[in-house]
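During the reporting period the student researcher (J.K.) took over the structure-prediction task from the postdoctoral fellow and processed the backlog of single-chain submissions. One of the processed entries is reproduced below for the supervisory committee.
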Amino acid sequence: MDFEYTLLKFGYMVKVLLAVYETYSLNDGIIAVKIFQKEKYNEREIEIGIGILRELNNLFQLRQLKFVNWGEFPFLIMEYANMKTLDIIAKQSQISFPSCALRALMKQILEGMRAFHSADLVHRDIKCDNILLHSPPGSGRVYSKISDFGFSKKVDLINGQTYLAGTIPFMSPEQFNVNPIITQKVDIYALGITFYKLITHKYPVNERKIEEQGKKMSQLKSILRPSEIKDDILWDLLQNLMEFDPYKRITAAEALQHPYFTSPEAIADVSKEQQDIASLAAAAQLEGNSNITEFDKDPTFIVAESIIKQFILEENNQKQKQYNIIENQENQKENKEINYGEEGFNTKNNYKLREIYLN
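J.K. obtained the following C-alpha cells:
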C-alpha cells in the first residue's frame, strides 16, 4: 500500500516535495510527516519529541505533534517549517547578512538550546541543516527551530559513547577520543561551528574522513580567528563556544548573557524593522492574541522575514538559471539528433541532396 494512501486514510492531504511529505490536516493545518521503516525507526526520537519537548513547549524547537505506529510505515507528524534551513544562509556568501539579524538568530538558537539542555538532554547532531526556519504567514518574522532528535539522549556521565553520533565538521575535540563521555558541551561546540559557518561560509576544519578530522583536531589547540570576523566581541563569544576544553566551554545560558547580546552596542544595533515587528506583536496581544510570546515582543529576538526571503529568492533564481542551462543543452542535443543524419547533412532541408549523393 502506498504511503500517500496511508496518509489520506488518516485524514492528511498530501503534497510530495523532494521526498519530504508536506501534508494538510483540518486540525493542524500544513504539517510535515517523517516516515520510518518499521524495523529502523528510533523510539528515543519519538519519546523525546512527543514527550519531553511537548512539555518544554519552546518556540525555538520544532514541535512534534503525533506519532502513528501504522503497519510498515510508522510516521511522525511534525510542525512544518516553511523557510528551509540555516544552510540557505551559510551557502550564499554573496548576500550580506545584517549584524542585527545575525545577533537575533543566534540568540533564538541559543535560547532553544538552553531550554533543550534544561531537560537534561544532549542533541549530538547540531548543524546548519538541523536548524529549520519558519515564518508564520503574515507575521513578518522568522523563527529558528532546532530539529532532528534521532541522536538525542539523556546525559550520561558514566558510560562512554561506543558509536559515532554527529556530523564530522561539527564534532567537538572530545568526540574523537575512544569511548568518549558525551556531555551537553558537544552541542555548544557544534553551535559555535554553526555560527562560524553562518558568518564565514566555510568550516574551520573539514576533512573528508573522521580519522583525518580527528588527527587534524589533535594538532590544534584552538580554532584560529578567520579574517571575515572583524567584531572582537563576537569572536570572544565564538571562542567560548568553540573552546577545546569542554570544562571551560560555556553553557547556552551563559552565552545568552555574553556582552555580544547584552552590551550597549548590541542594544543600539536593533533595527527599526525589528522594533516595529515587536510593537505589532505587543499590540496584537493587547487585542487578545494568545499566541504572542515574550520573544515576539522583544526586538532583540526578532529576525525579519524580509531578510531571509532574500536568500530564498536568490537560491530560487540560481536554480532556475541552472534549470534553463540544462534545458537548453537538452534542446540543442535533441535538435541535433533530429536535424542531422549519419553523414552530417541536414535531413530535413537536404533530403533530396542526400538521395542524389547516395545514388
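The committee noted the following: The longest strand covers residues 29-35.
J.K. will present the remaining backlog at the next meeting.
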